[in-house]
């Protein structure tokens, strides 16, 4: 389980470096303290052992002659010169280890002093040629010259050595010296303080260095993050501004910029592909059949709409095309469809499909007026187109335009590997039939009664009733048709 979560790289580096430095400092302080503690203890023990051996040798003659006053005087001098000594006992083996000379003096003539645990005394009185050392604690407060030397419960080290005859053959008694560890503890505490000071300085220096390192590493990463956000926002021309770095971050920045360049090229290609796709399938059509994007388009997606349908067809196109070469037909159709398509775009409609020379255009439910405007603009564009053809001694083009309004289904047909968009409905068939009637009634533009009734501003158009009741192919019910008269001035 994570207790702390550091989201920033800078924070992670700072935290990791700080923990590392603290760990190193803690380890150094621990080793230093242990080393100092061992050193001071060993030094005191060596001094005490040496003094104990010397005193044991010195006291052998005094103990043999039972010169107790001299021994006691010597003990007092030792305690004055060595503040670390808390007690000194000299026991006489010939009197069952009775303490003959001692400090504190109240323990003289006793056998087992209660200043230390019994096990310590028992260990000290064992006969051995080696110096006995044992760590214990004091059982009562000890004063010397009315001054407290050690408190009850504090740790001490007792050093015990046998007092033997000069020849070493016979044990005369035991010398026991209690050594306080207060100076050792103070020396260790001083060593700890010094180590902490050094460690604090090291921590401060390490922290500053860690901050500089974190800044050096995190700043370019944050700039990369900002660059990613800009590119994600659509600015594909943006490049990461990270220079003069020969490390992994510099390599990452270079790779990032290369990726950005590739994305820009890919997106440009994709944009051009989408623009080209919109030329095949109008954007208004895509928004209906693929509201979630063209990448999610599927066969059978459909939507029911009420729309105005416009059909436009060239009269006599078949006979005209028979007299033209295929490339001439291709060039002619592109020129013709361009001028007519521009008129439809200007009026707010969109072309659903080209059927040879025929054009099928659609207008939204609220754009019926636009369909009539488109028909007028198409006739004006055709006049200009014919004028240019006459300049080249080419025959005049005559078209018929039929407009109808009704319900259609816009959707996709085909199968998984070939999909096409289409508009299906009776209204489409009616619009096509109305366009066919333009030749019969010798009118340029015909429209149905449903179109007239849906006009928002009928007063803007010049309409003439052509037939109140006409039956179109495929329809049983008769409908009324109207002619849209184009103003005489088409300039």
Helix content: 40-55%
In terms of quaternary structure, the protein is single chain
- CATH arch. level architecture of the largest domain: 2-Layer Sandwich
Q: The CATH topology of the largest domain is what?
A: Alpha-Beta Plaits
The CATH superfamily title of the largest domain: Nucleotide cyclase, GGDEF domain
Pfam families: Guanylate_cyc, HAMP
Protein name: HAMP domain-containing protein
Domain HAMP: 215-268
Transmembrane segments: 12-33
Structure keywords:
Adenylyl/Guanylyl_Cyclase_3/4, eight-stranded mixed β-sheet, rod-shaped, alpha+beta, HAMP domain-containing protein, Alpha-Beta Plaits, five-stranded antiparallel β-sheet, Beta-Lactamase, 491 residues, transmembrane
What does this structure look like?
- There is one protein chain.
- By secondary structure, this protein is an alpha+beta fold.
- It has three domains: 9-188, Beta-Lactamase (2-Layer Sandwich), CATH 3.30.450; 236-278, no CATH class; 283-485, Nucleotide cyclase, GGDEF domain (Alpha-Beta Plaits), CATH 3.30.70.1230.
- The chain has helices spanning 9-64, 68-81, 118-124, 182-232, 248-280, 283-289, 317-322, 326-347, 368-391, 426-440, 449-453, and strands at residues 85-92, 98-103, 132-137, 142-144, 147-150, 155-164, 171-180, 302-314, 350-355, 358-363, 399-415, 418-424, 445-448, 462-470, 479-485.
- Strands 8, 9, 10, 11, 12, 13, 14 and 15 form an eight-stranded mixed β-sheet that branches.
- Strand 4 and strand 5 (147-150) form a beta hairpin.
- The longest helix is centred in the N-terminal third of the chain and has 56 residues, at 9-64.
- The mean pLDDT is 82.
- This is HAMP domain-containing protein.
- Keywords: Membrane, Transmembrane, Transmembrane helix.
- InterPro entries: A/G_cyclase, Adenylyl/Guanylyl_Cyclase_3/4, HAMP_dom, Nucleotide_cyclase.
């Amino acid at each position: 389980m994570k207790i702390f979560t550091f989201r920033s790289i800078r924070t992670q580096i700072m935290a990791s470096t700080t923990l590392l430095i603290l760990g190193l400092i803690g380890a150094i302080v621990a080793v230093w303290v242990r080393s100092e503690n061992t050193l001071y203890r060993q030094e005191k023990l060596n001094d005490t052992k040496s003094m104990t051996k010397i005193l044991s040798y010195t006291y052998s003659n005094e103990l043999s002659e039972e010169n107790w006053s001299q021994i006691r005087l010597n003990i007092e001098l030792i305690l004055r010169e060595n503040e670390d000594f808390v007690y000194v006992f000299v026991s006489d083996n010939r009197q069952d280890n009775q303490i003959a000379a001692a400090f504190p003096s109240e323990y003289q003539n006793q056998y087992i002093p209660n200043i230390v645990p019994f096990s310590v005394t028992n260990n000290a009185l064992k006969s051995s040629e080696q110096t006995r050392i044992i760590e214990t604690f004091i059982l009562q407060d000890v004063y010397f010259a009315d001054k407290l030397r050690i408190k009850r419960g504090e740790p001490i080290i007792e050093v015990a050595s046998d007092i033997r005859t000069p020849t070493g053959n016979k044990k005369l008694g035991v010398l026991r010296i209690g050594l306080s560890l207060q100076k050792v503890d103070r020396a260790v505490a001083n060593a700890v303080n010094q180590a902490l000071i050094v460690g604090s300085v090291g921590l401060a220096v390490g922290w500053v260095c860690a901050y500089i390192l974190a800044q050096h590493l995190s700043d370019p990463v944050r700039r990369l993050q900002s660059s990613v956000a800009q590119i994600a926002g659509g600015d594909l021309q943006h490049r990461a501004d990270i220079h003069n770095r020969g490390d992994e971050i510099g390599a990452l920045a270079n790779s990032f910029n290369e990726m950005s360049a590739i994305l820009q090229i890919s997106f440009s290609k994709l944009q051009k592909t989408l623009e080209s796709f919109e030329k095949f399938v109008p954007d208004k059509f895509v928004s209906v059949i693929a509201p979630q994007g063209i990448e999610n388009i599927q066969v059978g997606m459909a939507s029911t709409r009420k729309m105005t349908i416009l059909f436009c067809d060239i009269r006599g196109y078949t006979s005209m095309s028979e007299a033209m070469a295929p490339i001439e037909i291709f060039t002619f159709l592109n020129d013709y469809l361009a001028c007519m398509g521009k008129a439809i775009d200007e009026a707010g409609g969109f072309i659903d499909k080209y059927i040879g020379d025929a054009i099928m255009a659609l207008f939204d439910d609220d754009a019926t007026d636009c369909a009539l405007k488109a028909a007028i603009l198409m006739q004006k564009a055709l006049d200009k187109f014919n004028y240019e053809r006459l300049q080249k001694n080419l025959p005049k083009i005559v078209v018929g335009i039929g407009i109808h309004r009704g319900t259609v289904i816009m959707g996709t047909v085909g199968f998984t590997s070939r999909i096409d968009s289409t508009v299906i409905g009776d209204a489409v068939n009616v619009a096509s039939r109305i366009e066919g009637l333009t030749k019969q009634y010798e009118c340029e533009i015909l429209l149905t009664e449903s179109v007239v009734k849906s006009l928002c501003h009928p007063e803007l158009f010049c309409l003439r009733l052509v037939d109140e009741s006409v039956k179109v192919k495929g329809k049983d019910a008769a409908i009324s048709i109207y002619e849209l008269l184009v103003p005489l001035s088409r300039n």
